[in-house]
């Protein structure tokens, strides 16, 4: 928990509650379906471009390497194309949500390098001594913070002098929230902490999900056939070359159930801390105010009383999501703490799987083992033999 505060800041929405939770409203408003509909076409374009550049014509690839967003948010906020080690769903469109544009060249390269160094040390042994990875990570976080502050000042100037739309991006939205006295409600520190949180939160989660869906489809021919049939029906219903739409994604019901079941069995986020705001009693135990409680996804995801035969992969569990008891499927957390990026994750996952399965077939070149670091990491990066069906 303490390392989260050091890297993400005390004012990020994971740490706030009640009246202090005002940044969450801005995040939710920009990540709700009504706002996301206009970005489906841009995501479509970026996925096809990435697959054409880095997958088409290859006989073998390491899925985890191509899915690993080491510089995902830096690439998308820099408005440049993803490189060989960027996530396939590193969409430049996300910059409009965050409101960060970093020009090509030295400034962008510095941003990328600092963010990568910060991420690489977040889960290292928390020894804050010179030359340790953890210390380097904290120092990199300070540099990232200062660069985000510069960008916030630029957005504020643009808002004041050029009359920018208050809803054009997340930073502008946060800067535009005022009280009845026309005073800015959200502080610069809150904006910085939550911009960094957004970048960190999307760093690996979707890529882990897509990677393990590909592993599953290689091992389960029946599920592969069902997903392929659903996606090919969508292809047949559209003129050649036309972008996917929000309505197309709504038809991908089975594909999303496969995604949900993958998240149930292999959640990218294993668990997290929550602080008791008052003394509470649970299961006969007293949890004093201020104590940290660690919730763990598998405690309910793999509970046979909630999900019968929990070790069996069964997408039909999610045909009627209302049948799943509240707060039992927590891949996206739940209640007032549910992930604001839930719908965005759904869109990027469905768009990516659509083009992977309609343009390629694949088989695994390694075993199914994986480790956690702290997210699930397939053995050898999940190398696959790739066979194209058609070109882009």
TrEMBL record:
Family, as annotated: Belongs to the cytochrome P450 family.
Species whose genome carries this gene: Fagus sylvatica
Q: Which protein, by its recorded name, is this?
A: Cytochrome P450
Question: Which positions does UniProt annotate for heme binding?
Answer: 339
> Where's it found, cell-wise?
Membrane
Its placement in the membrane is given as: Single-pass membrane protein
Has the keyword Heme been applied to this entry? yes
Q: Write one Gene Ontology MF term.
A: oxidoreductase activity, acting on paired donors, with incorporation or reduction of molecular oxygen
- Cofactor(s) the protein needs: heme
Note the Gene3D superfamilies from the entry. Answer: Cytochrome P450
What GO terms fall under cellular component here? membrane
Name the domain of life. Eukaryota
What is a single Pfam family found in this protein's UniProt entry?
Answer: p450
Q: Which GO terms describe its biological process?
A: sterol metabolic process
Stored InterPro entries:
Cyt_P450, Cyt_P450_E_grp-I, Cyt_P450_sf
Q: Which UniProt keywords apply?
A: Heme, Iron, Metal-binding, Oxidoreductase
């Amino acid at each position: 928990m303490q390392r989260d505060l050091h890297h993400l800041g005390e004012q990020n929405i994971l740490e706030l509650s009640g009246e202090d939770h005002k940044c969450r409203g801005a995040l939710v408003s920009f990540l709700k379906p009504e706002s996301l509909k206009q970005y489906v076409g841009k995501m479509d374009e970026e996925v096809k471009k990435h697959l054409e550049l880095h997958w088409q014509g290859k006989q073998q690839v390491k899925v985890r390497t191509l899915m690993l967003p080491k510089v995902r948010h830096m690439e998308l906020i820099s408005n440049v194309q993803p490189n060989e080690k960027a996530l396939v769903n590193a969409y430049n469109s996300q910059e409009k949500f965050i409101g960060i544009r970093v020009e090509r060249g030295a400034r962008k390269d510095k941003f990328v390098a600092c963010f990568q160094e910060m991420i690489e040390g977040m889960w290292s042994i928390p020894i804050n001594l010179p030359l340790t990875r953890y210390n380097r990570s904290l120092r990199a976080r300070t540099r990232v913070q200062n660069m985000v502050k510069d960008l916030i000042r630029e957005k504020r100037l643009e808002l004041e002098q050029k009359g920018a739309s208050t809803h054009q991006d997340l930073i502008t939205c946060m800067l535009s929230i005022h009280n009845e006295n026309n005073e800015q409600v959200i502080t610069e520190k809150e904006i910085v902490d939550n911009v960094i949180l957004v970048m960190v939160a999307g760093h690996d989660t979707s890529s882990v999900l897509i990677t393990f869906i590909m592993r599953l489809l290689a091992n389960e021919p029946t599920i592969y056939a069902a997903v392929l049939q659903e996606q090919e029906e969508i292809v047949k219903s559209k003129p050649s070359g036309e972008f996917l739409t929000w309505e197309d994604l709504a038809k991908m019901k089975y594909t999303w159930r496969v995604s949900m079941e993958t998240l149930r069995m292999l959640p990218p986020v294993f668990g997290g801390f929550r602080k008791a705001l008052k003394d509470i009693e649970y299961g006969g135990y007293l949890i004093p105010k201020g104590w940290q409680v660690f919730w763990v996804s598998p405690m309910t995801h793999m509970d046979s009383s909630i999900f019968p035969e929990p070790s069996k992969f069964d997408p039909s569990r999610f045909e009627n999501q209302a049948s799943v008891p509240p707060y039992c499927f927590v891949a996206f957390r739940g209640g007032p703490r549910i992930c604001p990026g839930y719908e965005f994750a759904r869109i990027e996952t469905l768009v990516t799987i659509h083009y992977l399965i309609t343009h390629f077939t694949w088989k695994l070149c390694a075993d199914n083992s994986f480790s956690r670091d702290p997210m699930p990491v397939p053995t050898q990066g999940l190398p696959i033999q790739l066979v194209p069906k058609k070109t882009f």
